Amino acid sequence: MAAKTDLDLSDPVSIKGTREFDAPVALVFAAFTDAKHLSQWWGPNGFTTTTSHFDFRPGGTWRFVMHGPDGRDYENRVTFDEIEVNKRIAYRHGGGDDVEPVTFAQTVTFEDIGGGRTRIVWHGVFPNAQMRDFVIKEYGADKGLQETTARLAGYVAAMARS
C-alpha cells in the first residue's frame, strides 16, 4: 500500500493525487456516498465537516461547512456532474457569493487493483494557474489533499474491520 498520497503538480492548472487503500472499491466508494461517512474523514487534519444538504446524484448538490482548527468556517458547495458507481465521481466545486472563492472541476476515479485493494486518483482542474496557486498558498490544498486522503484511508480501514 502506498503510505502516502502521491502528488502531481506538474500541470499548472491542476492538482492530482493518487493513493492506494487496503479496502475494496465498493467500501471506499461508499465512504463518498453518505454524508455521515463524509463527516468522519473529509478535510485536512484538525478539520470537521458539517453537512446541511447532500443529494448524491448527477445535478445534485452537497452543501457543507469545513470547520478549521483555527475556528474559521469554510462554506462549500459541490455540484455532482457524473456518478458511476464504484468507478467515478465528477463534480464542480464552488460558485456563488456565499461560499469560499474557489472554483474547480474535480474527478475522482476508483480502481479495483485486486486483493481487496483500491486506487483512487483525485484530479482537480482550476480555471487558471493563478487560481490553482491561490488554493495552494491560501488553503494549503496540496498538503490538505494528502491529509484528507490519509484520513479516508484510516476511515475505510476501520469500516473494513467492522
UniProtKB/TrEMBL annotation:
One Pfam family per UniProt: AHSA1
Q: Where is the signal peptide?
A: none
The UniProt record lists the Activator of Hsp90 ATPase homologue 1/2-like C-terminal domain at 22-156
For this chain, the family text in UniProt reads: Belongs to the AHA1 family.
Q: What is this protein called?
A: ATPase
Which organism encodes this protein? Answer: Undibacter mobilis
